[in-house]
Amino acid sequence: MSRSSLSVSQPLPAPRSLTSELVARLTDDITSGKIPPGSQLPTEQELIAATGVSRTVVREAVAALRADGLVITRQGVGAFVPENARRPLRIDVDPLSPLRAVLDVMELRTGIEIEAAGLAAARGSASQIRKIIECFEAVDAALKRGDDAITQDFALHCSIADATGNPQFRRFLEHLGRFIIPRQTIRGGPGIPKRAYSETFQREHRAIVQAIRSGGVLRARAAMRRHLVNSRKRYQRLAAKLRSE
Questions:
Q1: How many domains does the chain have?
Q2: Which tens digits make up the pLDDT trace of 149-184?
Q3: Cβ–Cβ under 8 Å, residues 75 and 69
Q4: Helix, strand, coil % over all residues of the chain, rounded to 5
Q5: Residue 25 CB: number of other CB atoms within 10 A?
Q6: In terms of domains, do 22 and 142 share one?
Q7: pTM score over 0.85
Q8: pLDDT tier at 77 (50, 70, 90 boundaries)?
């Protein structure tokens, strides 16, 4: 492996986050085979010299690669590419258009969560259904306290994913993370009082929970579709308002 042929052998541009840029270049070198499985990454000093970034940036980049499973580190030796390294699923966000990214992800999750709701209605055990109901009630309690209920809302969607019996549904939601429940939508939207929004929000959730609880597969799918489509419309209205300001 020739160090000079690697993407990381050139200085990094300033506009993009240096850590993100370094992670992207190293990821490309690993997944393209330029740094093959079993090979050691360029050393910390080599990366600093080649790219002109700081030691902190290099360490943050290596930590990110380790979290993605693209490298493993050995104490006092360095970072190595494991045999099973694969390009991770990643949601890239244009810093100039974060609202567009959220809308795109909301559209992506629609198909996944509609199917999850149907499977939860068909497969959910008694204990899993109780958990869904508990999460729904937790959202209700948070909204009544005046909280934004983001954590509780995410937990509700995850409990439905768990009831599918397929762990990949929950992993998908957890990967999307902060894009699942956009914070701004919880506060309502232009011209929508928070209380009225909360009531609508929970009415949609209630329809989903009741359909799953009764084993109504088609009703659960339809209720989840309605909730997600309406959520996306609410966020679109908010995005339009923010663009006009």
A1: 2
A2: 888 999 999 999 999 999 999 988 887 765 666 554
A3: no
A4: 65, 5, 30
A5: 19
A6: no
A7: no
A8: confident
